[in-house]
Amino acid sequence: xxxxxxxxxxxxxxxxxxxxxxxxxxxxxxxxxxxxxxxxxxxxxxxxxxxxxxxxxxxxxxxxxxxxxxxxxxxxxxxxxxxxxxxxxxxxxxxxxxxxxxxxxxxxxxxxxxxxxxxxxxxxxxxxxxxxxxxxxxxxxxxxxxxxxxxxxxxxxxxxxxxxxxxxxxxxxxxxxxxxxxxxx
Length: 185
Description:
Helix content is 28%, strand content 20%. The protein is an alpha/beta fold. Strands 7-1-2-6-3-5-4-8-9 form a 9-stranded mixed sheet, covered by helices on one side. Helix 1 crosses helix 5. The radius of gyration is 15 Å and the shape is globular. It starts with a helix and ends with a strand.
């Protein structure tokens, strides 16, 4: 796995985009600090740049560096075995192109060791958006990913390509007033 991570890391450090397995679905990603790479993901997905992309962080320490203090009510969701994306009202140290129009950003700590190792090696959050053209369903298997996506990224990770993936993560929003709302159970 070290060679697989090294190849993916080289791609990310060079400003490239990546097709990779996560703890939920196959994702398209890049260094979350790299606005040019983020914009190339929007173009590849044919997605309006007004629709936010989520990012993955390796652990709670990295999460705190991006969102500041973590609301204690979120800790059970972060510890839960079920993948959970939390929309925070704002984030620092990532491309502003990732956020929604109100500045909010969806962030998840993946339960997948490959993702955690890659993000730790990068030392920064990793963009993670489903590997589909906007409006199409999210593929649950590598072979179901549109060829345009496979050919449009800089690097395809050769890991877990035979596995059936899960459904998308649960989504919870924490707004600026501190209200928690479950968006997708």
